[in-house]
Amino acid sequence: MNNQLSKLKSVKREEGFTIIEVLIVLAIGALIILAVLIAVPALQQNQRNSSRKSEAARVSTAVTNLLADNNSATLTSTDNGGLAGRAGLNATSGQLKTVSVNTSAATANTSTSVAYVVNTATCSGQTYTIVATDTTKYVVFYNLDGGGSACIKVQ
Q1: Distance CA 38, CA 43 (A)
Q2: Residue 89 burial by Cβ neighbours in a 10 Å radius (0-12, 13-18, 19+)
Q3: pTM exceeding the 0.70 threshold for the entire prediction
Q4: Cα 82 to Cα 74: distance, rounded to the nearest angstrom
Q5: What Å distances lie between residue 48 and 55, 84, 113, 140, CA to CA?
Q6: Cα separation, 129 vs 134, whole angstroms
Q7: By CB neighbour count within 10 A (0-12 exposed, 13-18 middle, 19+ buried), where does 111 fall?
Q8: C-alpha 98: how far from chain center
Q9: Using CB atoms within 10 A as the burial measure, which of 41, 99, 115, 125 is most buried?
Q10: What is the tens place of the pLDDT at every residue in 10-56?
């Protein structure tokens, strides 16, 4: 019997992975894939919002330049296309595709592709406040992906 026991001990065990080891590796892989799938949309949303911020800053500069060219005349809705062109907005690939010189539609509309130029206003956090006594104040207001909005004061 001792002889048989020593034979069993001397038999070399086959090399390989156990089912538990394989399941652990698969679970870790699944967690990594899940983390990537959760993170990528948030990163894309941040990138789109950063593009909007950059484009809105260009709209703000365009408003400043247009006001300077027109001796600070008040902007109207007829300036929409001119401002979009001056700001270099791309209607097919940009995040902000159009400009709207308007005070009433800016807060009612939730479009994330429109930059609203609002007269007689000042930035108040992420939105704007109407200051009816000063017609020389302008802001560029735009909506963000994922909710929220942003406001840039025109210099």
Answers
A1: 9
A2: buried
A3: yes
A4: 14
A5: 11, 18, 10, 17
A6: 12
A7: middle
A8: 17
A9: 115
A10: 655 667 889 999 999 999 999 999 999 999 998 999 999 999 999 98
